[in-house]
Amino acid sequence: MLPVGLPNFSPLIRPSFNSSCTDSKLAFSDTPSFTSQFYEAYTGVDKKVSALLRQIPWTHHLIILGQTKRPEEREFYLQLVAREKWSSRQLERQLKLALFERAVAQPPKVSAALRQAHPEAISALRDTYVLEFLGLPAGHSEADLHAGLLNRLREFLIELGRDFCFVGSEFPVQVGGRDFALDLLFFHRGLNCLVAIELEVGRFEPEYLGKLTFYVEALDRDVRKSHENPPIGVLLCASKDDEVVEYALSRTASPTLIAEYQTQLPDKALLQAKLHEFWLAGGSEDNT
After folding, report:
1. What pTM value is reported for the model?
2. In b/e form, how buried is each residue of 96-115, taking b as 16+ CB within 10 angstroms?
3. CATH number for the domain including 242?
4. CA distance 69 to 276
5. Both 95 and 110 in a single domain?
6. CA pair distance 36, 64, nearest whole angstrom
7. Are residues 131 and 76 in the same domain?
8. Boundary of a domain, candidates 86, 102, 118
9. Is residue 128 part of a domain?
């Protein structure tokens, strides 16, 4: 029997399954032990989390409860599943990629202008994007990266986030009678703005920011429509030094982000250790 006084999650906990269902995970979910685990995890949650619980497919609950440890980690993934509409496979991928640990311990490196123009963009952008699905070799070129992203555009859009819409590749920009080409151009529906992405297969260098700023300004003056918010620029590099990035962004007046891409799965144990150190040092836990 379930403990007295717990919130009524019965409709969630005991969905009706076809009697012929043989999925071991679903079968396990209907056992008293899992029911108790669900109640223990979500007893006393606030209304926001309670509402999320009713939006999430049952298989996603199984995955989240089975692979998370902290309440804020569970809420983080509940929010993202509801927002991004991930499939169970996509959710398992993000858990494997330690998205929660990365989001908390490695927040996105953005300019003050971006924070001011798009304060909500912090939750829509990331410090690191994992592109293991491209299968790129260690010595890949920018052309390899660019072509790979176009060939696997669906996976790249999922990694970027649900509100990103592809606009074009090598998007033409004309300034002063000269022709330029922006690597990738997207539109973010939630932010209602264009997002320019420039690719660099090496380490971030401060001079790269000038080129990105130029493209963002050109988009703002010549491409942006009157009902849209100012565009954002994202520089996607193979690696970066956070101190160099901080210096480079400190005086720029352009809404920009310096991010890193990885072609291999991150070391989740290392990220969990960094997160533990972050919290011991007094870091905020509210970074979802």
Report:
1. 0.81
2. ebbbbbbbbbbbbbbbebbe
3. 3.40.1350.10
4. 13
5. no
6. 15
7. no
8. 102
9. yes
- Rounded-to-integer distance, Cα 207 and Cα 119, Å: 25
For residues 144 and 133, the answer to whether their CB atoms sit within 8 Å is no
Which pair of structure tokens corresponds to residue 142? Answer: 């920018």
Q: Would you give per-residue pLDDT tens digits along the chain (288 residues)?
A: 434 334 444 444 444 334 333 344 444 445 557 677 788 888 888 888 888 888 988 899 989 999 998 899 999 999 999 999 999 999 999 999 999 988 888 889 999 999 999 999 998 999 999 999 999 998 999 999 999 999 999 999 999 999 999 999 999 999 999 999 999 999 999 999 999 999 999 999 999 999 999 999 999 999 999 999 999 999 999 999 999 999 999 999 999 999 999 998 877 777 777 676 766 666 554 444
Q: Which one, of 222, 210, 221, lies nearest residue 258 by Cα? A: 210
Q: Domain range for residue 197? A: 106-265
d(CA 188, CA 194): 6
Same domain, 238 and 137: yes
Total count of residues recorded for the chain:
288
Q: For residue 176, what are its two tokens?
A: 């002063």
SS3 233: strand
The residue type of 202 is: G
